Amino acid sequence: MNQVFTLTQEVQLSNQHIQLIKAECTKHSPNEACGVLIGRNEPGKIVVENVLPVTNSKPSDHSFELDPQEHYRAWNLADKEGLDIVGVYHTHPHSRARPSTWDKETMENDRSLWIIAGIDGIKGYEWDDGVKPVEIIEFS
Asked: Which of 35, 111, 114, 140 is spaced 20 to 30 A from 129 at the CA atom?
């Protein structure tokens, strides 16, 4: 599938996916956890169909790097399902769910959706000449 990223107004994320991301935050603390968001880009929104944890290949409490082999397997899984990797998630187990300086520098080169889970909840962001918040619509 071709990835075309347009300005997103909202992301639809199931309660089950949100709970998985929160559990990953706790499980990997004090280091950041990370993974990919598999779904569909639709006009003005992203619909997440699957959240797939990926090993943080450079464990740290202030940055993450998706394991390349696992990321490739996730891409193949998405492609087989007729979906795309529409974004990434990572955790800030001891800070707020706001992009760090490192996140902002990386987001500028990765225009997909970013979900960050922190001590103040889960928030969505994308890059559009700067960091822009994306509303998370939770469903059952």
From this structure: 35
Q: How far apart are CA 94 and CA 62, in angstroms?
A: 10
Task: State the 10-residue block means of pLDDT for the chain, 140 residues long.
Answer: 59 97 96 97 94 96 95 97 97 96 92 94 94 94
3-state secondary structure at position 73? helix
The number of domains in the chain is: 1
Q: Residue 90 maps to which CATH number?
A: 3.40.140.10
Structure tokens that stand for 74 in this block:
């996730």
Closest among 35, 38, 47 to 9, alpha carbons compared: 47
Amino acid type, 32 = E
The angle subtended at Cα 23 by Cα 111 and Cα 85, nearest 5°, is 25
